[in-house]
Amino acid sequence: MSDLSRPTSIQGVFLEKIAQDFGTPLYVYDGQKILDQIHALQKAFSGVPLKIKYATKALSNVSILKLIKKGGAGIDAVSIEEVRLGMLAGFSAKEIMYTPSGVSFEEIREAVELGVMVNLDSIPLIYQYGEAFGDKVPACIRINPHIMAGGNLKISVGHKTSKFGISIEQLDEILTAVKKSGVKIVGLHVHTGSDILDAEVFLKGANVLFDAAKNFPDLQFIDCGGGFKVAYKEGDPETDIAEVGEKVSSAFQEFCKNYGRQLELWLEPGKFLVSESGYLIVQTNVVKETPSVTFVGVDSGLNHLLRPMLYDAYHDVYNLSNPDAEEGRYSVVGYICETDTIAANRSLSKIKSGDLLVIKNAGAYGFSMASNYNSRVRPAEVLILDGKAYLIREREKFEDLIKNQIIIDL
Ligand code: LLP
């Protein structure tokens, strides 16, 4: 399912041409790939009433959200701003799940006023929610199942000491809070981490919810979160979606039988839907040979793609301008005044100054984690759909860096 090729064109549109037309650094997304991923997930869970709630935080451009809607998915939002982006993209309130962590009650109230389902993440919040809305506005509860999962500790969020959700060991307190507050609970949720390879982990998370569900008579859905791992390089394993689909679906159907009602199964994939769709095209500014390393300095860095530095994440890189040249060893580094190594000690076809490089798997948590560090502007974004390249975000300008500054007279 994963695409480990190093394309020079997408849907017949040449990447070199797009870089010429829109400049670099440039985020490019293959819209068809996003639709294919949605369909692959729908297929893997075709035996159950599935609702996909795309994790907006992975890539939140409104045109991408519109495409996700076209593919038949809803969204999961983690801020009121993401809720609003979703609505701007045309999602109805019913298609949006709001899963905040430790936000102010004003934000929760705003989401409720917009008609969006809220995922309650603490016991005090259950009480507060009940006080404000009684049994009139149904909600979901995020359970922390105490499962250690995910590619690294920074993206493991379902273990005992994680800040997320309400510990499954506090089930009695949850039930007391629900009873006293009067909140109608219609959903239970887990999300244990990102880059989860093992299908069993998803089943384990689901089973925690199935066990807890007998205490909640009004359930309409079970939300198993996201976290499917994608491949970042040749030989890199990825989550077997068919296996997860089979395991979780059959356990879910069995659960529904015992529960006495057919519920919906919700999933919240981020990376799985958009990671592989994204390519960050950068230009080489300098090839710098040192006694130990040949550095390739590019017109981007941790301000545009933070994952390699934050998580030691591996992103495949290739030379778009000169794909068939003899290979050399390079470290591709950014232009930020930090050690922002994008790719260390890689075998790449010979690079010269001015060459275009492509950084793969840049769709998820690429642009959405970009910043203006070093007072650099953020890249433009282009979506390729039906063989056409659409500019879906302009490159920032110097004026954008200062537009909210109030420059005082001194
Ligand atoms: N649902 C919830 C409640 C989440 O917090 C997340 C991700 C997802 C779903 C989607 O997870 P995914 O399918 O994308 O793995 N910046 C990190 C990943 C952080 C994920 C945060 N939560 C990275 O670049 O690896």
TrEMBL record:
Its cofactor is pyridoxal 5'-phosphate. GO terms for biological process: lysine biosynthetic process via diaminopimelate. The active site is at C337 (proton donor). Its EC number is 4.1.1.20. Residues 27-363 form the Orn/DAP/Arg decarboxylase 2 C-terminal domain. Keywords: Amino-acid biosynthesis, Decarboxylase, Lyase, Lysine biosynthesis, Pyridoxal phosphate. Pathway: Amino-acid biosynthesis; L-lysine biosynthesis via DAP pathway; L-lysine from DL-2,6-diaminopimelate: step 1/1. It catalyses: meso-2,6-diaminopimelate + H(+) = L-lysine + CO2. Substrate binds at R307, Y311, E338, Y365. Coiled coil: none annotated. Residues 33-275 form the Orn/DAP/Arg decarboxylase 2 N-terminal domain. GO terms for molecular function: diaminopimelate decarboxylase activity; pyridoxal phosphate binding. Pyridoxal 5'-phosphate binds at G227, Y365. The modification N6-(pyridoxal phosphate)lysine is found at K57. Belongs to the Orn/Lys/Arg decarboxylase class-II family. LysA subfamily. Homodimer. Specifically catalyzes the decarboxylation of meso-diaminopimelate (meso-DAP) to L-lysine. This is Diaminopimelate decarboxylase. The lineage of its organism: Bacteria, Pseudomonadati, Bacteroidota, Cytophagia, Cytophagales. The gene is lysA.
